[in-house]
């Protein structure tokens, strides 16, 4: 079964950090680009970051550039989103996604004092 499973979300104070993980199964993980998107209830999904297959190229939305870092560990079939200096506006459900293949179930990130 082709699957992505996110973990690592939670409640954090403004200025804090979190690391999200996305574990893949059922497909050749390293052969695909992977993206992170986030969504707030009542709003459309917002693209956050992308990493090219092989991990050589990374891209970020302006809203997270300099604060978030995307990476992959092909030996573990896992992608990560390291988030620092979190802001209340980063509050959302975060999804990892392999375009046109599979999206995970999401993990909630809440930034609040």
Strand and helix layout:
Blueprint: E1 3-7, E2 10-12, E3 18-25, E4 34-39, E5 46-51, E6 58-60, E7 68-73, E8 78-83, E9 92-98, E10 102-103, E11 107-111
Parallel strand pairs: 2-11
Antiparallel strand pairs: 1-3, 3-8, 4-5, 4-9, 5-6, 7-8, 9-10, 9-11
What's the overall geometry?
globular
Residue-averaged pLDDT, rounded? 96
Cα-atom radius of gyration: 13 Å
Order of helices and strands: EEEEEEEEEEE
Decide which structural class fits the backbone. Answer: mainly beta
Distance from N terminus to C terminus (CA atoms, Å) equals 39 Å
Which stretches are low in confidence, meaning pLDDT under 50 for 5 or more residues running?
none
User: What oligomeric state is this?
Assistant: single chain
Count the helices. How many?
0
User: Number of DSSP strands?
Assistant: 11
Largest sheet descriptor = 7 strands, mixed
The amount of helix comes to under 10%
| Strand proportion | over 45%
Write a structural description.
- This protein has no helices and eleven strands.
- The mean pLDDT is 96.
- Strand 9 (92-98) and strand 10 (102-103) form a beta hairpin.
- The strands form two sheets. Strands 2, 4, 5, 6, 9, 10 and 11 form a seven-stranded mixed beta sheet that branches. The protein has a four-stranded antiparallel beta sheet with strand order 1-3-8-7, with no helix packed on it.
- With 113 residues, it is mostly beta strands.
- It has strands at 3-7, 10-12, 18-25, 34-39, 46-51, 58-60, 68-73, 78-83, 92-98, 102-103, 107-111.
- The chain is globular and about 40 Å long.
């Amino acid at each position: 079964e082709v699957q992505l499973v996110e973990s690592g979300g939670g409640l954090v104070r403004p200025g804090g950090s979190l690391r999200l993980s996305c574990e893949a199964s059922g497909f050749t993980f390293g052969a695909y680009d992977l993206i992170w998107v986030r969504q707030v209830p009542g709003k459309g999904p917002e693209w956050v970051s992308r990493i090219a297959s092989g991990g050589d190229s990374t891209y970020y939305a302006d809203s997270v550039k300099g604060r978030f870092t995307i990476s992959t560990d092909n030996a573990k079939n896992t992608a990560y989103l390291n988030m620092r200096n979190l802001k209340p506006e980063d509050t959302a459900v975060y999804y990892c996604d392999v375009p046109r293949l599979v999206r995970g179930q999401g993990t909630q990130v809440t930034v609040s004092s």
